[in-house]
Amino acid sequence: MKHIEANNVNAYYGENHVLKDISLTMKANTVTAFIGPSGCGKSTFLRCLNRMNDYIDGFRKEGDIFIEGNDIYDKKVRVEELRQKVGMVFQKPNPFPKTIFENVAYGLKIQGIKNKNILEEAVERSLQQAALWNEVKDSLHKSALSLSGGQQQRVCIARALAVEPSTLLMDEPASALDPISTAKIEDLIAELKDNYTIVIVTHNMQQAARVSDKTAFFYMGNLIEYDKTKELFTNPKNERTENYITGRFG
Amino acid sequence: MTKLKQNRIIDSTFKYFGIFCTFFGLIVLAIFIFNILTEGVQRINWDFLSNLPSRRPAKAGILTAWTGTAWILGLTAIISIPLGVAAGVYLEEYGKKNRLASIIEINIANLAGVPSIIYGLLGLEIFVRTLNFGGSLLAGAFTLALLILPIIIVATREALKAVPKSLREASFGMGATKWQTIWYQTLPAASGGILTGIILALSRAVGETAPLIVIGALAYVPFVASTPMDEFTVLPMQIFNWVSRPQHGFVINAAAAIIILLLITFIMNGIAIYLRNKWQKKVNW
Ligand SMILES: Nc1ncnc2c1ncn2[C@@H]1O[C@H](COP(=O)(O)OP(=O)(O)O)[C@@H](O)[C@H]1O
Ligand SMILES: [Mg+2]
User: Fold this and answer.
1) Comparing C-alpha atoms, which of B249, B252, B219, B251 is closest to residue B236?
2) What separation in angstroms does the CA of B274 have from each of A49, A96, B70, B201, B269?
3) Which of A46, A147, A188, B26 stands the most exposed, by the fewest C-beta atoms within 10 Å?
4) Domains of chain A, CATH where assigned
């Protein structure tokens, strides 16, 4: 089933044309990796999927994006509701300067949910899903900033999961982390796939190969190649893809 | 003489000149404080704080003055904090970054530098006459609130600017509205800086005399204000009044009142510095 569908998406920052006619579809409960050299538009495209670019002065988008069959740029869509369905994890762990509990409960709190039992349940469930519960269950009311970088990133994942999104966007979620934390995040992605559709931007080609089902290679705003991950890495159709994955530029 | 040697001489000359300048300021301040303390300290006692003004220096106290200052401080805070913070939030978070915005920005910066007596004239026209508040606490507080509003607005904007973009993105990414993001994340994260600005602004208001003279605050008020519509005096006015008297007893009273006023502003500035340091340590996410 098509979960995400983009049709002829173009994006501009002022005069700068950064996404050129991108069309692709992603199935539900799969992991899709975006790879490509720095500045090729991976983050921009990812941020189109939950409309995080809306606030940027001079940003403009053409084309349509459907998630679960809904045109997410339709005038009737409330962008706040969209972002509850399409969660995001950022490159640098960015927990709120509040307790672990408050971090994870934030999404529910802003929806007006105050019931303590519901919040506690959601916090525990999300931290379990983020493979963090055992490490922090006795310190839920300590500041999230006191955790290690890897733990902070998992708090951010738990925070995103707490509102039960259907889709999780991750923009280089492990690039600021040490190898052990990175491995944990990768294991986590493999587990979350059962319940979520995941799109991950990564600089690390081994990571893309390890975690994703399909991979999209972007180059200078163009979608050069999009295929099953195994196929793209072992048998690239395009010369530029081959050059990139063999490390000849990038 | 070689160029190198010449440079070294310039270097050390400037160093000693700098040391001299620093100590000049400090020494003058020290002499001033020493004088005030030797003159005034023995005068500070419970009676001095709890007596009404009097024609006899030994009987005169600062009860009306310090209660007036407390009233003014409280009312000015109530008026200026919501207005200033709200204006700062609007300009920083909602206002479009266009020509109008930069004109407003420059104007606010300029307003912070307008001599306080001009605010007094403004207050006289608007609050005392047009709104008919008379020379009351309310008129004084509104006038001082106008005076410190630019300081609070600028401090609020600076503090909001210092909040990292990643914090806002985290909140928006969770589906928070703009207002929720401001209320739950940005404002709390900026609160240290905002509070510091508010306290510094209020401590400036506590020391102001000129605008209050213009709006008609009295130097001699024989009763403690009990409503915001009462006439009033404040510590700096009382000091101003006493130092202009011929009897030496009043000069001693003035010194004692100055100590109280300095104490208030030192404590307020101390709190502001404490908050700023605490806040700076916290801003490292
Ligand atoms: N906020 C922005 N304002 C203006 N230009 C931007 C902004 N963000 C990204 N860009 C530009 O858009 C292009 C694509 O950036 P991005 O999507 O971040 O690339 P990637 O994530 O692949 O490194 C780059 O040329 C970058 O300079
Ligand atoms: Mg990027």
Assistant:
1) B219
2) 44, 23, 22, 16, 8
3) B26
4) 2-245 (3.40.50.300)
Nearest-angstrom CA–CA distance, B145 and B224: 22
Tens digit of each residue's pLDDT (9 = 90 or more) over B111-130: 888 999 999 999 999 999 99
A40/A218 Cα distance (integer angstroms): 6
Beta carbons of B159 and B92 less than 8 angstroms apart? no
Given this structure, which CATH class describes domain B48-282? Answer: mainly alpha
For A103-121, how does the pLDDT look when each residue is reduced to its tens digit (9 = 90+)?
999 999 999 999 999 999 9
Q: Do residue A110 and residue B176 have CB atoms under 8 angstroms apart?
A: yes
Interface test with A, best of B98, B174, B180, B278 (most A CBs within 10 A): B174
A43 Cα to the center of ligand 2, angstroms: 4
Helix (H, G, I), strand (E, B) or coil at A22: strand
Of all residues in chain A, what percent carry a pLDDT higher than 90?
91
Tell me if chain B has a CB within 8 Å of the CB of A82. Answer: yes
Q: What is the mean predicted confidence (pLDDT) over A1-26? A: 94
ipTM of the complex, rounded to two decimals: 0.93
Nearest one of B113, B112, B264, B284 to B192, comparing CA atoms: B284
Q: Say whether A92 and B166 touch across the interface (CB within 8 A).
A: yes
Q: Which of A13, A40, A60 to mutate to test the pocket of ligand 1 (most atoms within 8 A of CB)?
A: A13
Give the residue on B whose Cα is nearest the Cα of A149. Answer: B285
The tokens for A11 are: 């994006």
| Domain boundaries, given as residue ranges, for chain B | 3-43, 48-282
